[in-house]
Batch of 4 targets.
Target 1
Amino acid sequence: MTVASMVLWSVWGAFALLMAGLYIYRSSLTRDEEDQIFLDDSFDHEKVHQAAIVAKVAKVEPLVRAARWLVVAMTAVVVVYYVRDIMVQLNVIH
């Protein structure tokens, strides 16, 4: 295994761990989220609690999307690297 491939896999792994951590964090936030509508004013404390959960999830969502795209991009880089390596080994390119 070359140094370049070790670096590629290390960066990919770091991005994947970041993405997994963000998914776990987001799922822990949404664990207490309710899928119901509170129509009575006596449930204002629940409305506030649910709004706080939604606000936290909204803050994390752009990070989740960015991490997902970083993993996708890094996966493409790794695939291109190995396809190029195969083509060099087969003397298709130099």
Note: The chain has a mean pLDDT of 89.
Target 2
Amino acid sequence: MIQKIKETCLYVTDLDKTEAFYHKKLELPIISRKEDAFIFFRAGSDVLLCFMNDYAKNQEGLPPHFANGKIHFAFEVKTEDYQKWKEKMKDYQIKITHEQEWKNGLLSFYFEDPDGHVLEIVSEGIWD
């Protein structure tokens, strides 16, 4: 049985902007950074890999990978921290593009990173 998705890849255009957004604003610890290539972050027990598109597309040794367009993924937070994260978005002037109430009464909200990827903060238990 597959236990979980361990890592998620994004393809970015500027490592400094990516670091400022994910590390300084979303508070994800940095695992590794290679200039003009990638920056990797820890998200709980998971990993967010942010590659410069041309680097991942042309790297040797591993299968090439890349993507274009608005990639979507969600971060889960404790239900009691949901409003704090909404406030952080306001504090950092990150526009919330949509808020959704799900069938189980839990909430999530959507916003974009500097490359236009669609991110979501979900309350713990949304998929339970």
Note: The mean pLDDT is 95.
Target 3
Amino acid sequence: MNNQTIQEGKTIAIISHITIVGTIAALIMQYGRKNSFAAFHIRQMIGLGIIGLLNQYYITDLLGKNTGVLIALMLFIFRIIGLIGAIRGEEKKIPFLGDQFQEWFKNI
């Protein structure tokens, strides 16, 4: 990926890491632009958002509050790792599911 693509998509990529509202805003900003760097980060954050919702409404109920808090903490750390990657202009995949997120949301 060239430096110009990274610089053009960096703002959108950073916004995508700031809550689920930021992800939605970044998705709207990305519409029509098709910047591959921004799209990479949006796909990662959509995946984390879905896992976060599943954790909040299902996993915590099934496995208990302590497990839910532990998963929420891991998701927060993954979000920070992704944000640092976006700031540095790197495509850092989320551990464990990053490849799956790229495959599942490849149309973004």
Note: The two ends are 17 Å apart (CA to CA).
Target 4
Amino acid sequence: MSHGFAAVTDLTLTYLVDSYYNPADELGVAWDDPDLGADWAVSDPVVSARDRGEPAAPRRIPDYLRPRHGLRA
């Protein structure tokens, strides 16, 4: 699963999490990956340096890095 958002006004976003931040446990894909086909509906996006550095195409993520957890309810 992946998530993302596009804001057309200033906002504050708060995430509720169940564990401390662990950068080794992060995985991402390029926000503009054509394989995903996300329509962000913005013409001149401001994208963080971190998000600009994510790899394109989820299929290029090495198998050993892919999530293995099931859904949590």
Note: The mean pLDDT is 78.
